[in-house]
Amino acid sequence: MGAIARHAAALAVAVLAFGPLGPGARAADAPAGSWKLDKDNWQKAEGLVPEPVLRRIEAGDYTFTVVPTDAKKFRENFTQAFWAASEANEGKYDIDKETCGLKLKESGEIPDNVFGQAFPRIDPKDPLAACKVAWNFYLGNQIGEGQGASFTLNGIDRNGEFRRIKMWLHLNPYLGRTVKAKRNPENLRSTQMSHSLEPADAEGVNLLTQSINDWTSHDRIWAYLPQMRRARRLNAATRSDPLAGLDIFSDDLNCYAGKPEYYRWKLVGEQKVLAPIVGPYALAQTRTGETRYEIDIPYLKGGYETPGNAGAPWQITENLVLVERPAWVMEGESRDPYYNFGKVIMHVDKEMNRIYWKQVHNRAGEYFYTAMCSYHWSKIEDGSFGAMTPNMVMGVNDKTDRAALGGRYQGQFIERDFDPRHFSLRALSRLSD
Q1: Residue percentage of the chain with pLDDT more than 70
Q2: Count of domains observed in the chain
Protein backbone atom coordinates (compact mmCIF):
# COMPACT_ATOMS: atom_id res chain seq x y z
CA MET A 1 0.00 0.00 0.00
CA GLY A 2 1.35 3.45 -0.94
CA ALA A 3 2.35 6.19 1.48
CA ILE A 4 -0.90 8.14 1.01
CA ALA A 5 -3.00 5.06 1.68
CA ARG A 6 -0.93 4.16 4.73
CA HIS A 7 -1.42 7.68 6.07
CA ALA A 8 -5.16 7.45 5.43
CA ALA A 9 -5.32 4.13 7.27
CA ALA A 10 -3.58 5.69 10.26
CA LEU A 11 -6.10 8.52 10.25
CA ALA A 12 -8.92 6.01 10.07
CA VAL A 13 -7.72 4.26 13.21
CA ALA A 14 -8.00 7.58 15.03
CA VAL A 15 -11.75 7.40 15.03
CA LEU A 16 -11.65 4.33 17.26
CA ALA A 17 -10.74 6.59 20.11
CA PHE A 18 -13.30 9.37 20.36
CA GLY A 19 -16.96 9.87 20.13
CA PRO A 20 -19.43 11.71 21.63
CA LEU A 21 -17.32 16.49 26.08
CA GLY A 22 -9.10 30.33 37.09
CA PRO A 23 -9.05 27.67 34.13
CA GLY A 24 -11.36 24.67 34.26
CA ALA A 25 -14.64 26.41 34.99
CA ARG A 26 -15.66 30.03 34.63
CA ALA A 27 -16.00 31.71 38.00
CA ALA A 28 -19.63 32.65 37.37
CA ASP A 29 -20.50 28.97 36.85
CA ALA A 30 -18.58 27.52 39.79
CA PRO A 31 -20.81 26.47 42.73
CA ALA A 32 -20.30 27.69 46.28
CA GLY A 33 -17.38 25.99 48.00
CA SER A 34 -15.35 25.68 44.79
CA TRP A 35 -11.64 26.35 44.92
CA LYS A 36 -8.76 26.80 42.51
CA LEU A 37 -5.97 24.22 42.38
CA ASP A 38 -2.76 25.61 40.92
CA LYS A 39 0.99 26.00 41.47
CA ASP A 40 0.43 27.98 44.68
CA ASN A 41 -1.38 25.14 46.46
CA TRP A 42 -0.42 22.06 44.41
CA GLN A 43 0.22 20.11 47.63
CA LYS A 44 -3.56 19.83 48.10
CA ALA A 45 -3.62 17.40 45.18
CA GLU A 46 -1.00 15.02 46.59
CA GLY A 47 -2.39 11.50 46.51
CA LEU A 48 -5.44 12.65 44.50
CA VAL A 49 -4.00 12.78 40.97
CA PRO A 50 -1.28 10.75 39.21
CA GLU A 51 2.26 11.89 40.03
CA PRO A 52 2.97 13.24 36.49
CA VAL A 53 -0.15 15.42 36.73
CA LEU A 54 0.83 16.66 40.18
CA ARG A 55 4.24 17.70 38.85
CA ARG A 56 2.60 19.72 36.06
CA ILE A 57 0.29 21.46 38.53
CA GLU A 58 3.35 22.35 40.62
CA ALA A 59 5.13 23.70 37.52
CA GLY A 60 2.18 25.91 36.55
CA ASP A 61 1.12 23.93 33.49
CA TYR A 62 -2.32 23.11 34.91
CA THR A 63 -4.91 25.04 36.88
CA PHE A 64 -8.15 23.30 37.84
CA THR A 65 -11.39 24.30 39.51
CA VAL A 66 -12.36 21.78 42.21
CA VAL A 67 -16.06 21.73 43.09
CA PRO A 68 -17.96 20.09 45.96
CA THR A 69 -20.71 17.60 45.19
CA ASP A 70 -23.75 16.29 46.97
CA ALA A 71 -23.08 12.53 47.16
CA LYS A 72 -26.74 11.58 46.76
CA LYS A 73 -27.30 13.94 43.85
CA PHE A 74 -24.11 12.80 42.12
CA ARG A 75 -25.25 9.18 42.42
CA GLU A 76 -28.50 10.25 40.74
CA ASN A 77 -26.56 10.97 37.56
CA PHE A 78 -27.53 7.36 36.91
CA THR A 79 -31.28 6.60 36.91
CA GLN A 80 -33.18 4.89 39.69
CA ALA A 81 -33.77 2.06 37.22
CA PHE A 82 -30.00 1.62 36.86
CA TRP A 83 -29.45 1.29 40.60
CA ALA A 84 -32.46 -1.03 41.00
CA ALA A 85 -31.19 -3.26 38.18
CA SER A 86 -27.73 -3.31 39.77
CA GLU A 87 -29.15 -4.57 43.05
CA ALA A 88 -31.18 -7.20 41.18
CA ASN A 89 -27.96 -8.41 39.49
CA GLU A 90 -26.34 -9.37 42.82
CA GLY A 91 -25.31 -13.05 42.60
CA LYS A 92 -26.55 -13.42 39.01
CA TYR A 93 -23.21 -13.22 37.17
CA ASP A 94 -19.75 -14.74 37.46
CA ILE A 95 -16.32 -14.44 35.83
CA ASP A 96 -14.50 -17.04 33.74
CA LYS A 97 -11.15 -17.38 35.50
CA GLU A 98 -9.09 -18.03 32.36
CA THR A 99 -10.39 -15.23 30.14
CA CYS A 100 -12.05 -12.68 32.47
CA GLY A 101 -15.22 -13.31 30.44
CA LEU A 102 -18.66 -12.57 31.90
CA LYS A 103 -21.11 -15.45 32.32
CA LEU A 104 -24.41 -16.27 33.95
CA LYS A 105 -23.70 -17.93 37.29
CA GLU A 106 -26.43 -20.53 37.02
CA SER A 107 -25.92 -21.72 33.43
CA GLY A 108 -22.40 -20.58 32.57
CA GLU A 109 -23.71 -19.02 29.36
CA ILE A 110 -22.62 -15.65 27.99
CA PRO A 111 -25.38 -13.05 28.60
CA ASP A 112 -26.78 -11.03 25.71
CA ASN A 113 -27.90 -8.00 27.76
CA VAL A 114 -26.89 -6.76 31.22
CA PHE A 115 -28.39 -3.50 32.46
CA GLY A 116 -26.81 -2.05 35.59
CA GLN A 117 -23.70 -3.17 37.43
CA ALA A 118 -23.09 -6.88 37.00
CA PHE A 119 -21.31 -6.83 40.38
CA PRO A 120 -22.88 -4.22 42.69
CA ARG A 121 -20.67 -5.25 45.61
CA ILE A 122 -17.00 -6.07 45.13
CA ASP A 123 -14.72 -7.50 47.81
CA PRO A 124 -11.16 -6.25 47.14
CA LYS A 125 -9.85 -9.56 48.53
CA ASP A 126 -11.70 -11.51 45.84
CA PRO A 127 -9.08 -12.83 43.33
CA LEU A 128 -11.53 -11.91 40.53
CA ALA A 129 -12.24 -8.43 41.91
CA ALA A 130 -10.26 -6.65 39.16
CA CYS A 131 -12.21 -8.40 36.38
CA LYS A 132 -15.47 -7.50 38.13
CA VAL A 133 -14.44 -3.83 38.29
CA ALA A 134 -13.52 -3.98 34.59
CA TRP A 135 -16.93 -5.41 33.71
CA ASN A 136 -18.85 -2.78 35.68
CA PHE A 137 -16.85 -0.18 33.78
CA TYR A 138 -17.48 -1.80 30.39
CA LEU A 139 -21.24 -2.16 30.89
CA GLY A 140 -21.51 1.41 32.16
CA ASN A 141 -20.20 2.60 28.79
CA GLN A 142 -23.28 1.20 27.05
CA ILE A 143 -26.33 2.29 29.04
CA GLY A 144 -26.97 5.29 26.76
CA GLU A 145 -27.65 2.98 23.82
CA GLY A 146 -26.93 4.41 20.33
CA GLN A 147 -25.07 7.74 20.23
CA GLY A 148 -23.33 10.05 17.79
CA ALA A 149 -21.38 13.31 17.56
CA SER A 150 -18.90 15.27 15.45
CA PHE A 151 -15.59 16.01 17.12
CA THR A 152 -11.95 16.96 16.61
CA LEU A 153 -8.51 15.62 17.37
CA ASN A 154 -6.07 18.43 18.09
CA GLY A 155 -2.31 17.93 18.23
CA ILE A 156 -0.72 20.53 20.53
CA ASP A 157 2.84 21.39 21.53
CA ARG A 158 4.37 24.34 23.39
CA ASN A 159 3.79 26.54 20.33
CA GLY A 160 0.08 25.72 20.09
CA GLU A 161 -1.99 23.56 17.74
CA PHE A 162 0.00 21.84 14.99
CA ARG A 163 -2.68 19.50 13.57
CA ARG A 164 -6.48 19.26 13.55
CA ILE A 165 -8.65 16.40 12.34
CA LYS A 166 -12.46 16.54 12.24
CA MET A 167 -14.80 13.56 11.97
CA TRP A 168 -18.12 12.13 13.10
CA LEU A 169 -18.73 8.91 14.99
CA HIS A 170 -21.88 6.82 15.41
CA LEU A 171 -21.92 3.89 17.82
CA ASN A 172 -24.47 1.28 18.78
CA PRO A 173 -23.92 -0.90 21.89
CA TYR A 174 -25.83 -4.10 22.54
CA LEU A 175 -24.65 -5.74 25.75
CA GLY A 176 -25.14 -3.05 28.42
CA ARG A 177 -28.21 -1.25 27.09
CA THR A 178 -30.99 0.10 29.27
CA VAL A 179 -33.44 -1.85 27.07
CA LYS A 180 -32.31 -4.90 25.07
CA ALA A 181 -31.96 -4.14 21.36
CA LYS A 182 -34.74 -5.41 19.13
CA ARG A 183 -32.22 -6.51 16.49
CA ASN A 184 -28.71 -7.92 16.89
CA PRO A 185 -28.30 -10.30 13.94
CA GLU A 186 -24.50 -10.69 14.28
CA ASN A 187 -24.37 -11.33 18.07
CA LEU A 188 -22.39 -8.16 18.73
CA ARG A 189 -21.46 -6.39 21.95
CA SER A 190 -21.12 -3.11 20.09
CA THR A 191 -20.47 -1.57 16.70
CA GLN A 192 -19.41 1.83 15.45
CA MET A 193 -19.09 3.75 12.19
CA SER A 194 -17.09 6.88 11.52
CA HIS A 195 -16.41 9.30 8.70
CA SER A 196 -13.48 11.73 8.42
CA LEU A 197 -14.37 15.25 7.29
CA GLU A 198 -11.11 17.20 7.25
CA PRO A 199 -8.28 17.91 6.47
CA ALA A 200 -8.08 16.95 2.79
CA ASP A 201 -5.72 14.01 3.34
CA ALA A 202 -8.21 12.45 5.77
CA GLU A 203 -11.50 13.34 4.05
CA GLY A 204 -13.57 10.32 3.09
CA VAL A 205 -11.68 7.81 5.26
CA ASN A 206 -14.33 5.67 6.94
CA LEU A 207 -14.08 3.09 9.69
CA LEU A 208 -16.33 0.22 10.82
CA THR A 209 -15.69 -1.66 14.07
CA GLN A 210 -17.56 -4.70 15.35
CA SER A 211 -17.05 -6.29 18.77
CA ILE A 212 -18.33 -9.87 18.98
CA ASN A 213 -20.08 -11.09 22.13
CA ASP A 214 -17.63 -13.83 23.06
CA TRP A 215 -14.57 -14.23 25.29
CA THR A 216 -11.75 -14.75 22.79
CA SER A 217 -12.22 -12.93 19.47
CA HIS A 218 -10.57 -9.64 18.60
CA ASP A 219 -12.61 -6.73 17.31
CA ARG A 220 -13.22 -6.72 13.57
CA ILE A 221 -12.07 -3.41 12.07
CA TRP A 222 -12.32 -2.23 8.48
CA ALA A 223 -11.07 1.05 7.03
CA TYR A 224 -12.41 2.35 3.73
CA LEU A 225 -9.69 4.29 1.92
CA PRO A 226 -10.94 6.59 -0.86
CA GLN A 227 -7.55 6.46 -2.60
CA MET A 228 -7.97 2.69 -3.02
CA ARG A 229 -11.78 2.64 -3.22
CA ARG A 230 -11.98 -0.47 -1.09
CA ALA A 231 -12.18 -1.53 2.56
CA ARG A 232 -9.08 -2.87 4.26
CA ARG A 233 -9.07 -5.06 7.39
CA LEU A 234 -7.02 -3.67 10.29
CA ASN A 235 -5.45 -5.43 13.28
CA ALA A 236 -7.11 -4.71 16.63
CA ALA A 237 -3.65 -4.15 18.16
CA THR A 238 -3.53 -0.82 16.27
CA ARG A 239 -5.47 0.61 19.24
CA SER A 240 -2.05 1.13 20.85
CA ASP A 241 -0.54 2.96 17.84
CA PRO A 242 -0.28 6.78 17.89
CA LEU A 243 -3.07 8.39 15.92
CA ALA A 244 -1.95 10.19 12.77
CA GLY A 245 1.23 11.48 14.36
CA LEU A 246 -0.60 12.76 17.46
CA ASP A 247 0.11 12.01 21.11
CA ILE A 248 -3.10 10.09 21.64
CA PHE A 249 -4.25 6.51 21.08
CA SER A 250 -7.39 4.67 20.00
CA ASP A 251 -7.49 2.90 23.36
CA ASP A 252 -8.01 6.25 25.10
CA LEU A 253 -11.80 6.31 24.62
CA ASN A 254 -13.17 6.05 28.18
CA CYS A 255 -9.45 5.59 29.06
CA TYR A 256 -9.86 1.99 27.84
CA ALA A 257 -11.67 0.99 24.65
CA GLY A 258 -11.23 -2.77 24.46
CA LYS A 259 -13.03 -5.79 25.81
CA PRO A 260 -12.33 -6.70 29.46
CA GLU A 261 -10.94 -10.01 28.19
CA TYR A 262 -8.10 -8.27 26.30
CA TYR A 263 -6.21 -7.39 29.50
CA ARG A 264 -4.86 -9.24 32.49
CA TRP A 265 -6.22 -7.15 35.37
CA LYS A 266 -4.94 -6.62 38.89
CA LEU A 267 -6.55 -4.63 41.71
CA VAL A 268 -3.69 -2.91 43.51
CA GLY A 269 -5.37 -0.42 45.84
CA GLU A 270 -8.07 2.08 46.76
CA GLN A 271 -7.82 5.86 47.10
CA LYS A 272 -9.59 9.17 46.60
CA VAL A 273 -9.05 10.88 43.24
CA LEU A 274 -9.94 14.21 41.67
CA ALA A 275 -12.16 13.26 38.75
CA PRO A 276 -12.51 15.44 35.59
CA ILE A 277 -16.11 15.94 34.48
CA VAL A 278 -18.52 18.35 32.83
CA GLY A 279 -21.24 19.11 35.30
CA PRO A 280 -21.09 17.81 37.95
CA TYR A 281 -24.73 16.82 37.45
CA ALA A 282 -26.72 15.39 34.54
CA LEU A 283 -27.37 17.54 31.47
CA ALA A 284 -30.80 17.65 29.81
CA GLN A 285 -31.77 15.41 26.90
CA THR A 286 -34.26 16.99 24.48
CA ARG A 287 -36.47 14.68 22.47
CA THR A 288 -36.27 15.37 18.73
CA GLY A 289 -37.87 12.18 17.35
CA GLU A 290 -39.59 8.98 18.36
CA THR A 291 -36.31 7.35 19.43
CA ARG A 292 -33.87 10.28 19.23
CA TYR A 293 -32.67 12.83 21.79
CA GLU A 294 -30.13 15.67 21.64
CA ILE A 295 -27.86 17.13 24.33
CA ASP A 296 -26.15 20.52 24.36
CA ILE A 297 -22.71 20.35 25.97
CA PRO A 298 -20.49 23.24 27.14
CA TYR A 299 -17.35 23.51 25.02
CA LEU A 300 -14.11 22.53 26.75
CA LYS A 301 -11.88 25.37 25.68
CA GLY A 302 -8.16 24.71 25.37
CA GLY A 303 -5.32 26.88 26.60
CA TYR A 304 -4.13 27.45 23.02
CA GLU A 305 -7.57 28.98 22.31
CA THR A 306 -7.52 31.23 25.40
CA PRO A 307 -5.86 34.67 25.20
CA GLY A 308 -3.43 35.23 28.07
CA ASN A 309 -3.26 31.54 29.01
CA ALA A 310 -0.25 31.09 31.30
CA GLY A 311 -0.31 27.30 31.52
CA ALA A 312 0.24 24.47 29.06
CA PRO A 313 -1.39 25.15 25.68
CA TRP A 314 -3.31 21.88 26.03
CA GLN A 315 -4.85 22.51 29.45
CA ILE A 316 -8.63 23.01 29.55
CA THR A 317 -9.54 26.56 30.57
CA GLU A 318 -13.37 26.47 30.59
CA ASN A 319 -16.21 24.16 31.63
CA LEU A 320 -14.15 21.30 33.08
CA VAL A 321 -14.20 20.72 36.84
CA LEU A 322 -12.66 18.23 39.23
CA VAL A 323 -14.68 16.43 41.90
CA GLU A 324 -13.36 14.15 44.63
CA ARG A 325 -14.35 10.52 44.13
CA PRO A 326 -13.52 7.13 45.70
CA ALA A 327 -11.56 4.97 43.28
CA TRP A 328 -10.09 1.55 42.71
CA VAL A 329 -6.48 1.53 41.49
CA MET A 330 -6.13 -1.06 38.72
CA GLU A 331 -3.24 -2.39 36.69
CA GLY A 332 -3.80 -3.87 33.27
CA GLU A 333 -1.54 -5.50 30.71
CA SER A 334 -2.60 -6.68 27.27
CA ARG A 335 -2.62 -10.37 26.36
CA ASP A 336 -1.79 -9.39 22.74
CA PRO A 337 1.97 -9.61 21.99
CA TYR A 338 1.56 -6.99 19.24
CA TYR A 339 0.06 -4.40 21.59
CA ASN A 340 2.54 -1.57 22.20
CA PHE A 341 1.71 -0.75 25.82
CA GLY A 342 3.17 -2.52 28.81
CA LYS A 343 1.69 -1.92 32.27
CA VAL A 344 -1.23 0.52 32.37
CA ILE A 345 -2.40 2.01 35.69
CA MET A 346 -6.01 3.20 35.88
CA HIS A 347 -8.13 4.97 38.51
CA VAL A 348 -11.72 3.70 38.39
CA ASP A 349 -14.64 5.29 40.24
CA LYS A 350 -15.87 2.69 42.77
CA GLU A 351 -19.49 3.75 42.46
CA MET A 352 -19.89 5.34 39.00
CA ASN A 353 -17.54 2.91 37.20
CA ARG A 354 -15.57 5.56 35.23
CA ILE A 355 -11.84 5.51 34.50
CA TYR A 356 -10.61 9.08 35.01
CA TRP A 357 -6.82 8.72 34.78
CA LYS A 358 -4.56 6.32 32.90
CA GLN A 359 -0.77 6.07 33.15
CA VAL A 360 0.92 4.11 30.38
CA HIS A 361 4.29 2.31 30.35
CA ASN A 362 5.97 0.88 27.28
CA ARG A 363 6.94 -2.76 26.86
CA ALA A 364 10.30 -2.03 28.50
CA GLY A 365 8.51 -0.86 31.65
CA GLU A 366 9.22 2.87 31.17
CA TYR A 367 6.47 5.36 31.95
CA PHE A 368 5.76 7.82 29.11
CA TYR A 369 2.11 8.89 28.89
CA THR A 370 -0.92 9.97 30.94
CA ALA A 371 -4.50 10.27 29.71
CA MET A 372 -7.14 12.34 31.51
CA CYS A 373 -10.64 11.17 30.57
CA SER A 374 -13.66 13.36 31.25
CA TYR A 375 -17.37 12.54 31.08
CA HIS A 376 -20.87 13.92 31.30
CA TRP A 377 -24.19 12.38 32.24
CA SER A 378 -27.56 13.23 30.68
CA LYS A 379 -31.22 12.40 31.33
CA ILE A 380 -34.64 12.87 29.79
CA GLU A 381 -37.03 15.19 31.61
CA ASP A 382 -38.76 12.58 33.80
CA GLY A 383 -35.43 10.95 34.74
CA SER A 384 -36.44 7.49 33.53
CA PHE A 385 -33.70 7.20 30.89
CA GLY A 386 -30.13 8.43 31.06
CA ALA A 387 -26.72 8.13 29.47
CA MET A 388 -23.08 8.42 30.43
CA THR A 389 -20.82 9.72 27.67
CA PRO A 390 -17.07 10.39 27.36
CA ASN A 391 -16.57 13.94 26.12
CA MET A 392 -12.80 14.45 26.09
CA VAL A 393 -9.41 12.83 26.39
CA MET A 394 -6.34 14.92 27.16
CA GLY A 395 -3.39 12.73 26.26
CA VAL A 396 0.05 13.96 27.37
CA ASN A 397 3.36 12.44 26.34
CA ASP A 398 5.74 13.33 29.15
CA LYS A 399 8.74 12.15 27.12
CA THR A 400 8.12 14.59 24.23
CA ASP A 401 6.27 17.31 26.18
CA ARG A 402 3.46 17.26 23.63
CA ALA A 403 -0.23 16.49 23.94
CA ALA A 404 -3.46 15.93 22.07
CA LEU A 405 -7.09 16.71 22.84
CA GLY A 406 -9.80 14.39 21.53
CA GLY A 407 -13.54 15.00 21.61
CA ARG A 408 -14.73 18.35 23.03
CA TYR A 409 -17.92 18.26 20.98
CA GLN A 410 -20.71 20.73 21.82
CA GLY A 411 -23.64 18.52 20.96
CA GLN A 412 -24.49 14.86 20.68
CA PHE A 413 -27.52 12.78 19.78
CA ILE A 414 -28.85 9.57 21.28
CA GLU A 415 -30.59 7.09 18.99
CA ARG A 416 -32.29 4.25 20.83
CA ASP A 417 -33.17 2.22 17.71
CA PHE A 418 -30.35 2.38 15.16
CA ASP A 419 -30.88 0.27 12.05
CA PRO A 420 -28.12 -2.42 12.14
CA ARG A 421 -27.65 -1.89 8.38
CA HIS A 422 -26.14 1.52 9.17
CA PHE A 423 -23.14 -0.38 10.62
CA SER A 424 -22.25 -2.62 7.67
CA LEU A 425 -19.50 -3.02 5.08
CA ARG A 426 -21.97 -1.92 2.42
CA ALA A 427 -22.69 1.31 4.31
CA LEU A 428 -18.95 1.79 4.98
CA SER A 429 -18.08 1.93 1.29
CA ARG A 430 -21.03 4.13 0.37
CA LEU A 431 -20.28 6.93 2.86
CA SER A 432 -17.71 8.44 0.50
CA ASP A 433 -19.83 8.20 -2.68
Answers
A1: 93
A2: 1
